[in-house]
């Protein structure tokens, strides 16, 4: 496909939680695009486990640890926006929110991305004087995680 602009990626949410992390189950869900999202930072990383022994003269060895993925979403603080309300409810009520970040329309066969039920951990507001009020929402995957989601062919 070649290079893509960040604006081509799409963020989706669902009123229904993911109960099966398979590609076919996720593609069968009802997803709503969240066009009010501005910047998205999908941070896929693993924890680093270190280990040093006398046997290797105290040199530190590094091992893969568990995944510690996160997403930061910047969006306008719009009380009328359903996506804003879903994230705010997830934060206030401590309930997960089903989200997907994909490289094109989620209904297109071959669309790739990341989908899971997420915990909303931070919901700070950015209220700059000469700018639209924004929230910078920080989420981490909670359950039914699919890091390599691909919309199946019909």
Overall mean pLDDT stands at: 90
Distance between the termini: 20 Å
Helix content: 10-25%
Q: Please give the count of helices.
A: 2
Radius of gyration: 18 Å
Number of strands: 10
Question: Which stretches are low in confidence, meaning pLDDT under 50 for 5 or more residues running?
Answer: none
Q: Name the assembly state.
A: single chain
Structural class: mainly beta
Strand content: over 45%
Largest sheet, if any?
Answer: 8 strands, antiparallel
Helix and strand pattern: EHEEEEEHEEEE
Q: Shape from CA axes?
A: globular
Provide a descriptive summary of the structure in words:
With 154 residues, the chain is mainly beta. It has helices at residues 23-27, 82-93; strands at residues 10-14, 32-33, 37-43, 46-52, 60-67, 70-76, 97-102, 112-122, 125-126, 134-150. The strands form two sheets. Strands 1, 2, 3, 6, 7, 8, 9 and 10 form an eight-stranded antiparallel beta sheet that branches. Strands 4-5 form a two-stranded antiparallel ribbon. A hairpin with a 7-residue loop joins strand 9 (125-126) and strand 10. It starts with 9 loop residues before the first strand and ends with a strand.
């Amino acid at each position: 496909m070649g290079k893509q602009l960040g604006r081509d990626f799409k963020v989706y949410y669902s009123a229904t939680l993911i109960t099966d992390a398979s590609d076919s189950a996720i593609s069968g869900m009802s997803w709503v695009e969240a066009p009010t999202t501005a910047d998205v930072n999908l941070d896929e990383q693993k924890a680093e486990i270190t280990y040093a022994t006398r046997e290797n003269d105290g040199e530190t060895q590094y091992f893969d640890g568990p995944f510690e993925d996160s997403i930061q979403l910047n969006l306008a603080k719009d009380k009328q926006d359903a996506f804003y309300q879903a994230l705010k409810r997830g934060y206030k009520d401590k309930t997960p929110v089903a989200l997907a970040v994909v490289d094109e329309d989620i209904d297109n066969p071959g669309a790739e991305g990341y989908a899971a039920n997420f915990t909303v951990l931070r919901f700070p507001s950015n209220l700059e004087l000469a700018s639209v009020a924004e929230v910078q929402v920080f989420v981490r995957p909670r359950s039914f995680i699919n890091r390599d989601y691909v919309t199946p062919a019909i």
